[in-house]
Amino acid sequence: MNHPLVEGYFRMEKFPHIWCPGCGHGIIMASIARSIEKLGLDKDKVCIVSGIGCSSRAPGYMDFNTLHTTHGRALAFATGVKLANPELEVIVIAGDGDLSAIGGNHLIHAARRNIGLTTICFNNNIYGMTGGQYSPTTPTNEKGTTAPYGNIDKPFDITQLAMGAGATYAAKTTVYHVNQMDKLIESAISHKGFSLVEAISICPTYYGRKNKKGSVVDMMNWLKDSFVDHKVAEKLPPEKKEGKFLMGEFINKIEPEYTEQYDKIIEQLKK
Ligand SMILES: Cc1ncc(C[n+]2csc(CCOP(=O)(O)OP(=O)(O)O)c2C)c(N)n1
Ligand code: SF4
Question: Where in the sequence is the signal peptide annotated (predicted)?
Protein backbone atom coordinates (compact mmCIF):
# COMPACT_ATOMS: atom_id res chain seq x y z
CA MET A 1 0.00 0.00 0.00
CA ASN A 2 2.64 2.56 -0.92
CA HIS A 3 0.37 5.00 -2.74
CA PRO A 4 1.02 8.62 -1.58
CA LEU A 5 -2.69 9.11 -0.82
CA VAL A 6 -2.74 6.02 1.38
CA GLU A 7 0.46 6.82 3.25
CA GLY A 8 -0.33 10.51 3.56
CA TYR A 9 -3.86 10.24 4.89
CA PHE A 10 -4.24 6.88 6.59
CA ARG A 11 -2.87 5.33 9.79
CA MET A 12 -1.10 2.34 8.31
CA GLU A 13 -0.71 0.66 11.71
CA LYS A 14 -4.52 0.41 12.05
CA PHE A 15 -4.91 -1.87 9.03
CA PRO A 16 -6.32 -4.36 8.15
CA HIS A 17 -9.69 -2.69 8.52
CA ILE A 18 -12.71 -4.44 10.05
CA TRP A 19 -15.04 -4.16 7.04
CA CYS A 20 -16.40 -7.27 5.30
CA PRO A 21 -15.27 -8.04 1.74
CA GLY A 22 -17.44 -5.99 -0.64
CA CYS A 23 -18.58 -3.46 1.99
CA GLY A 24 -19.13 -0.06 0.39
CA HIS A 25 -17.83 1.99 3.31
CA GLY A 26 -14.15 1.97 2.25
CA ILE A 27 -15.10 3.57 -1.08
CA ILE A 28 -16.59 6.56 0.74
CA MET A 29 -13.64 6.82 3.13
CA ALA A 30 -11.23 6.93 0.16
CA SER A 31 -13.39 9.55 -1.55
CA ILE A 32 -13.20 11.77 1.55
CA ALA A 33 -9.38 11.46 1.55
CA ARG A 34 -9.17 12.27 -2.19
CA SER A 35 -11.41 15.30 -1.72
CA ILE A 36 -9.30 16.60 1.16
CA GLU A 37 -6.17 16.16 -0.95
CA LYS A 38 -7.74 17.88 -3.97
CA LEU A 39 -8.70 20.84 -1.79
CA GLY A 40 -5.14 20.97 -0.42
CA LEU A 41 -6.32 21.15 3.20
CA ASP A 42 -3.78 21.16 6.02
CA LYS A 43 -4.18 17.82 7.81
CA ASP A 44 -3.79 19.51 11.18
CA LYS A 45 -6.75 21.79 10.40
CA VAL A 46 -9.11 18.91 9.66
CA CYS A 47 -11.09 17.14 12.37
CA ILE A 48 -13.12 14.03 11.54
CA VAL A 49 -15.80 13.00 14.02
CA SER A 50 -17.92 9.85 14.09
CA GLY A 51 -20.40 8.03 16.32
CA ILE A 52 -20.59 4.23 16.51
CA GLY A 53 -21.17 1.77 13.67
CA CYS A 54 -19.24 0.07 10.86
CA SER A 55 -19.15 3.44 9.06
CA SER A 56 -18.03 5.21 12.22
CA ARG A 57 -14.84 3.13 12.28
CA ALA A 58 -13.53 5.16 9.30
CA PRO A 59 -11.96 8.01 11.32
CA GLY A 60 -9.87 5.45 13.21
CA TYR A 61 -8.07 4.67 9.95
CA MET A 62 -7.73 8.31 8.84
CA ASP A 63 -4.67 10.32 9.83
CA PHE A 64 -6.24 13.62 10.91
CA ASN A 65 -7.51 14.96 14.22
CA THR A 66 -10.19 12.35 14.85
CA LEU A 67 -12.91 11.65 17.40
CA HIS A 68 -14.77 8.32 17.69
CA THR A 69 -17.64 9.26 20.00
CA THR A 70 -20.94 7.64 21.04
CA HIS A 71 -23.77 6.29 18.91
CA GLY A 72 -25.83 9.13 17.43
CA ARG A 73 -23.84 11.92 19.05
CA ALA A 74 -21.21 12.72 16.42
CA LEU A 75 -22.93 15.99 15.44
CA ALA A 76 -23.18 17.08 19.07
CA PHE A 77 -19.42 16.54 19.61
CA ALA A 78 -18.66 18.14 16.24
CA THR A 79 -20.76 21.19 17.14
CA GLY A 80 -18.61 21.63 20.26
CA VAL A 81 -15.38 21.25 18.28
CA LYS A 82 -16.49 23.79 15.66
CA LEU A 83 -17.66 26.34 18.24
CA ALA A 84 -14.39 26.00 20.19
CA ASN A 85 -12.27 26.32 17.03
CA PRO A 86 -14.16 27.59 13.98
CA GLU A 87 -10.91 27.51 11.95
CA LEU A 88 -11.10 23.72 11.83
CA GLU A 89 -12.66 21.94 8.87
CA VAL A 90 -14.95 19.57 10.78
CA ILE A 91 -16.21 16.49 8.92
CA VAL A 92 -18.78 14.14 10.45
CA ILE A 93 -19.04 10.51 9.36
CA ALA A 94 -22.29 8.76 10.34
CA GLY A 95 -24.27 5.68 9.38
CA ASP A 96 -27.96 5.97 8.50
CA GLY A 97 -28.89 4.53 11.91
CA ASP A 98 -26.52 6.83 13.72
CA LEU A 99 -27.64 9.95 11.85
CA SER A 100 -31.36 9.45 11.36
CA ALA A 101 -32.49 7.25 14.29
CA ILE A 102 -30.71 7.89 17.60
CA GLY A 103 -29.00 11.01 16.19
CA GLY A 104 -31.97 12.34 14.22
CA ASN A 105 -32.53 15.33 16.49
CA HIS A 106 -28.89 16.39 16.21
CA LEU A 107 -29.18 16.24 12.42
CA ILE A 108 -32.22 18.49 12.18
CA HIS A 109 -30.83 21.05 14.62
CA ALA A 110 -27.35 21.18 13.06
CA ALA A 111 -29.04 21.74 9.69
CA ARG A 112 -31.41 24.37 11.13
CA ARG A 113 -28.52 26.31 12.66
CA ASN A 114 -26.48 26.18 9.46
CA ILE A 115 -23.36 25.39 11.46
CA GLY A 116 -20.27 24.88 9.29
CA LEU A 117 -19.99 21.10 9.55
CA THR A 118 -19.74 18.68 6.63
CA THR A 119 -21.72 15.52 7.28
CA ILE A 120 -21.14 12.43 5.16
CA CYS A 121 -23.83 9.81 5.73
CA PHE A 122 -22.74 6.27 4.86
CA ASN A 123 -26.25 5.01 4.10
CA ASN A 124 -26.39 1.22 3.69
CA ASN A 125 -30.10 1.09 4.65
CA ILE A 126 -29.45 -1.08 7.71
CA TYR A 127 -27.66 -1.30 11.09
CA GLY A 128 -24.52 -3.11 9.93
CA MET A 129 -22.42 -3.27 13.07
CA THR A 130 -25.08 -4.77 15.35
CA GLY A 131 -26.25 -7.48 12.97
CA GLY A 132 -28.73 -6.14 10.42
CA GLN A 133 -31.59 -4.50 12.33
CA TYR A 134 -33.76 -2.30 10.11
CA SER A 135 -33.05 1.44 10.18
CA PRO A 136 -35.08 4.57 9.30
CA THR A 137 -33.82 4.25 5.70
CA THR A 138 -34.69 0.58 5.18
CA PRO A 139 -37.21 0.57 2.31
CA THR A 140 -40.76 -0.56 3.09
CA ASN A 141 -41.18 -4.35 2.75
CA GLU A 142 -37.42 -5.02 2.90
CA LYS A 143 -36.13 -7.32 5.64
CA GLY A 144 -33.84 -6.92 8.64
CA THR A 145 -33.19 -9.08 11.72
CA THR A 146 -35.85 -6.99 13.51
CA ALA A 147 -38.21 -7.11 10.52
CA PRO A 148 -38.09 -10.78 9.46
CA TYR A 149 -41.42 -10.52 7.62
CA GLY A 150 -40.66 -7.15 6.00
CA ASN A 151 -40.43 -3.60 7.29
CA ILE A 152 -43.78 -1.80 7.47
CA ASP A 153 -42.26 1.66 8.13
CA LYS A 154 -41.97 4.35 5.48
CA PRO A 155 -38.27 5.25 5.03
CA PHE A 156 -36.63 8.65 5.46
CA ASP A 157 -34.94 10.33 2.53
CA ILE A 158 -31.99 11.76 4.50
CA THR A 159 -31.12 14.37 1.87
CA GLN A 160 -34.70 15.70 1.84
CA LEU A 161 -34.85 15.55 5.63
CA ALA A 162 -31.73 17.73 5.93
CA MET A 163 -33.06 20.15 3.33
CA GLY A 164 -36.40 20.38 5.11
CA ALA A 165 -34.56 21.19 8.33
CA GLY A 166 -32.62 24.03 6.66
CA ALA A 167 -29.36 22.52 5.30
CA THR A 168 -27.79 24.96 2.85
CA TYR A 169 -25.93 22.22 0.97
CA ALA A 170 -27.36 18.74 0.36
CA ALA A 171 -26.42 16.10 -2.18
CA LYS A 172 -26.84 12.38 -2.77
CA THR A 173 -24.64 9.89 -4.58
CA THR A 174 -23.72 6.21 -4.45
CA VAL A 175 -20.61 4.07 -4.03
CA TYR A 176 -20.92 3.14 -7.71
CA HIS A 177 -20.73 6.81 -8.82
CA VAL A 178 -17.30 7.53 -7.34
CA ASN A 179 -16.29 10.43 -9.60
CA GLN A 180 -19.49 12.24 -8.73
CA MET A 181 -18.95 11.41 -5.07
CA ASP A 182 -15.48 13.03 -5.09
CA LYS A 183 -16.90 16.22 -6.61
CA LEU A 184 -19.86 16.41 -4.23
CA ILE A 185 -17.71 15.82 -1.13
CA GLU A 186 -15.29 18.50 -2.33
CA SER A 187 -18.16 20.97 -2.78
CA ALA A 188 -19.64 20.03 0.58
CA ILE A 189 -16.33 20.60 2.39
CA SER A 190 -15.85 23.93 0.58
CA HIS A 191 -19.36 25.05 1.53
CA LYS A 192 -19.55 27.52 4.40
CA GLY A 193 -22.68 26.43 6.30
CA PHE A 194 -24.09 22.99 7.12
CA SER A 195 -23.54 20.52 4.31
CA LEU A 196 -24.65 16.94 3.89
CA VAL A 197 -23.66 14.31 1.37
CA GLU A 198 -25.75 11.16 1.55
CA ALA A 199 -23.58 8.42 0.10
CA ILE A 200 -25.59 5.28 -0.63
CA SER A 201 -23.38 2.39 0.46
CA ILE A 202 -23.76 -1.38 0.32
CA CYS A 203 -23.82 -3.93 3.14
CA PRO A 204 -23.62 -7.29 1.36
CA THR A 205 -23.34 -9.16 4.68
CA TYR A 206 -26.69 -8.15 6.18
CA TYR A 207 -28.84 -6.02 3.87
CA GLY A 208 -27.71 -7.90 0.77
CA ARG A 209 -28.11 -11.40 2.19
CA LYS A 210 -31.40 -10.76 4.02
CA ASN A 211 -32.96 -9.22 0.94
CA LYS A 212 -31.48 -11.61 -1.64
CA LYS A 213 -29.69 -8.84 -3.51
CA GLY A 214 -27.17 -11.24 -5.07
CA SER A 215 -23.43 -10.69 -5.24
CA VAL A 216 -21.52 -7.49 -4.50
CA VAL A 217 -21.29 -6.95 -8.27
CA ASP A 218 -25.09 -7.32 -8.52
CA MET A 219 -25.53 -4.73 -5.75
CA MET A 220 -23.16 -2.31 -7.51
CA ASN A 221 -24.93 -2.84 -10.84
CA TRP A 222 -28.24 -2.12 -9.14
CA LEU A 223 -26.87 1.24 -7.97
CA LYS A 224 -25.59 1.96 -11.47
CA ASP A 225 -28.98 1.21 -13.04
CA SER A 226 -31.25 2.70 -10.38
CA PHE A 227 -29.81 6.15 -9.71
CA VAL A 228 -29.90 9.06 -12.11
CA ASP A 229 -28.76 12.66 -11.62
CA HIS A 230 -31.85 14.82 -11.10
CA LYS A 231 -30.66 17.30 -13.73
CA VAL A 232 -30.34 14.49 -16.28
CA ALA A 233 -33.72 13.09 -15.19
CA GLU A 234 -35.42 16.41 -15.98
CA LYS A 235 -34.72 15.83 -19.66
CA LEU A 236 -35.74 12.17 -19.74
CA PRO A 237 -39.16 10.94 -20.97
CA PRO A 238 -41.39 9.61 -18.13
CA GLU A 239 -40.88 5.94 -19.08
CA LYS A 240 -37.08 6.26 -18.64
CA LYS A 241 -37.51 7.80 -15.16
CA GLU A 242 -39.82 5.13 -13.84
CA GLY A 243 -38.43 3.36 -10.78
CA LYS A 244 -35.30 5.53 -10.71
CA PHE A 245 -33.91 7.29 -7.64
CA LEU A 246 -32.61 10.83 -7.99
CA MET A 247 -29.09 11.85 -6.99
CA GLY A 248 -26.78 14.85 -7.43
CA GLU A 249 -26.62 18.27 -5.79
CA PHE A 250 -30.08 19.33 -4.59
CA ILE A 251 -29.31 22.57 -2.78
CA ASN A 252 -26.29 24.89 -2.59
CA LYS A 253 -27.07 28.31 -1.16
CA ILE A 254 -25.35 30.84 1.07
CA GLU A 255 -26.86 31.86 4.40
CA PRO A 256 -25.23 33.22 7.61
CA GLU A 257 -23.08 30.54 9.25
CA TYR A 258 -23.66 29.78 12.93
CA THR A 259 -20.17 30.17 14.42
CA GLU A 260 -19.70 33.48 12.58
CA GLN A 261 -22.98 34.77 14.03
CA TYR A 262 -21.95 33.54 17.46
CA ASP A 263 -18.56 35.28 17.22
CA LYS A 264 -20.28 38.51 16.19
CA ILE A 265 -22.24 38.50 19.45
CA ILE A 266 -19.03 37.95 21.44
CA GLU A 267 -17.39 40.89 19.63
CA GLN A 268 -20.43 43.12 20.31
CA LEU A 269 -20.34 42.29 24.01
CA LYS A 270 -16.65 43.19 24.20
CA LYS A 271 -17.35 46.78 23.08
C1 LIG B 1 -26.56 4.38 22.87
C2 LIG B 1 -26.28 3.18 22.01
N3 LIG B 1 -27.32 2.49 21.51
C4 LIG B 1 -27.10 1.44 20.71
C5 LIG B 1 -25.81 1.05 20.42
C6 LIG B 1 -25.59 -0.17 19.56
N7 LIG B 1 -25.21 0.18 18.21
C8 LIG B 1 -23.90 0.25 17.84
S9 LIG B 1 -23.70 0.57 16.20
C10 LIG B 1 -25.39 0.59 15.98
C11 LIG B 1 -26.02 0.78 14.63
C12 LIG B 1 -25.08 1.04 13.53
O13 LIG B 1 -25.79 1.26 12.35
P14 LIG B 1 -25.49 2.49 11.43
O15 LIG B 1 -25.38 3.74 12.21
O16 LIG B 1 -26.48 2.52 10.32
O17 LIG B 1 -24.02 2.19 10.86
P18 LIG B 1 -23.45 0.93 10.05
O19 LIG B 1 -22.93 -0.03 11.09
O20 LIG B 1 -24.54 0.35 9.23
O21 LIG B 1 -22.36 1.53 9.23
C22 LIG B 1 -26.08 0.36 17.17
C23 LIG B 1 -27.55 0.30 17.30
C24 LIG B 1 -24.75 1.81 20.96
N25 LIG B 1 -23.47 1.53 20.67
N26 LIG B 1 -25.01 2.86 21.74
S1 SF4 C 1 -21.66 -5.66 8.37
FE2 SF4 C 1 -22.21 -4.57 6.48
S3 SF4 C 1 -21.71 -2.39 6.89
FE4 SF4 C 1 -20.62 -3.66 8.41
S5 SF4 C 1 -18.59 -4.05 7.53
FE6 SF4 C 1 -19.89 -5.79 6.96
S7 SF4 C 1 -20.71 -5.24 4.95
FE8 SF4 C 1 -19.93 -3.35 5.87
Answer: none
